[in-house]
Amino acid sequence: NNIICCEEKEIFVHQNIYDQFLRSLKQLPVIILAEHQTDKLMKRVFTDGHPDKRFIGKNASVLLAEIGVQAGDEIRLIISEVDEDHPLVHTEQLMPFLPLVKVRSTEAGIAQAYQAENGRFHSAYMHSQNISHLHAMARKMNTAIFVKNAPSLAGLGYETGMYTSFTIAGCTGEGLTTARTFTRERLCVLKGYFHIV
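The chain above was modelled as a monomer; its predicted structure follows.
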């Protein structure tokens, strides 16, 4: 239900693969909202531009019920196709309500992802077979966690052999927290290409 703060908050997808990506999403237990449904849900689960605390951590079915959409608990995520300036893109919400943005180029996607991170330097993720794109994203984002070609949970140690930390001290500079050190630790996870372990 998107309660873990390092999970994907928004997704930027290159226009060349957008339709294929959308088709793949439709194979998963998600519901993709129409624009009017997105607007309606925003009015129900946000108050004065902030997430309504009553909906934080709730299942997708609870949010969907607010707009009259029947869904069981097997539906894990609500997807909304929006533009880069939509409030959903720039809000830390901790709800299973994920904005999907089509971008014209990799460079535009990186720039928009940087804007959406809003100086938090928390976590970022990218899927690409182009190592220069992965490098450009990692340098631009400068986050405590950067995951390449793996799910966001890999940044917390899932299937990577790293230790798990549910606290990321990004603002104070420590990065992933551990009792072993007080220095800033940076984590960059890569799966597939250039993965040597």
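The chain has a mean pLDDT of 86.
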